[in-house]
Amino acid sequence: MSIELDGLGVDGREKIIRIASKNPVFCNEHDTIADVADKIVATEHRRLPVLAKKGEVAGVLTKSDLLDAFLRHDDFDQSVSEIMSRELILCDANESLKYVLQKFKISRRGGFPVVDKKKLVGMISERDFVTLVAGRETGIRVENVMTKKPMVVQSGISVLDCLKTLVNTHYRRLPVVTRPSGGTLVGIVTASDLLKYIHENGYSFDSLDEPIDDVVIKDVYTANPQDDISQTASFIVSKRVGGLLVVSEKHELEGIITERDIVEHIS
């Protein structure tokens, strides 16, 4: 079962620039990794387009790129061009919503720079499409869309082990439970939480020996398996989070539903 753009009152032929974020935050290819990390932590953006001297998009840098570079012991005083992704997927400002939606599904990326005559004019993200679903009854339940039995980490492991798990699996967030097989839900840890923690500790590897418990967000946002995904979409947009843990009435973890899960069901 899918959600038609037309059913959301949206013309799929409209230009993507209509729903894209205008005047996006960006960095320059010669900025240091440390300076860009400061900007990402301060703005809470997941990714920043990286511009070349002539103002053209040269790459994209994500929080995951920063965490990966940190684990590799990269010098954060070097240029951000050393670690940015050069495998660009750009969206022309005149491309249609329907066409860009397919780009998301095929690439499984969370966002793209939007350009007009090679110049950056916006950013489009999964959340921009999720916003279209927010508050519009779809008849699709969370349990039919969520990822069941998501990867978890156990409470009490070190920040380093959690960081390695997040980077190696390429996940953006991990539920934290009391035992490896599941157990009681403790909270959630995200790439944003880990980057902020590392940043606050001056990028010191000594801080990674601490247990993950102090980084875990314990007051988590959750969804009920029986909720319509429009409710989840509304919550994701209003709280500015990338996903919700799905829990039973007994507060047992049943799954996780993310922006990507919702976008996958829009057509």
Put the structure in a nutshell.
The chain has eight helices and 14 strands. With 267 residues, the protein is α/β, with parallel strands linked by helices. Strand 3 (47-51) and strand 4 (57-62) form a beta hairpin.
What does this structure look like?
The chain is built from eight helices and 14 strands. The chain has 267 residues and is of the alpha/beta class. It folds into two domains: 6-125, CBS-domain, CATH 3.10.580.10; 142-263, CBS-domain (Roll). The protein is flat. The mean pLDDT is 93.
Distance between the termini: 10 Å
Total number of beta strands: 14
Biggest beta-sheet profile:
4 strands, mixed
- Structure class: alpha/beta
Average pLDDT figure: 93
**What is the global morphology?**
flat
Contiguous uncertain segments of 5+ residues: none
**Tally of DSSP helical segments:** 8
Using the coordinates above, name the CATH class of the largest domain: Alpha Beta
**CATH level 4 superfamily of the largest domain:** CBS-domain
The name CATH uses for the topology of the largest domain is CBS-domain
Strand content: 15-25%
Order of helices and strands: EEHEEHEHEEHEEHEEHEHEEH
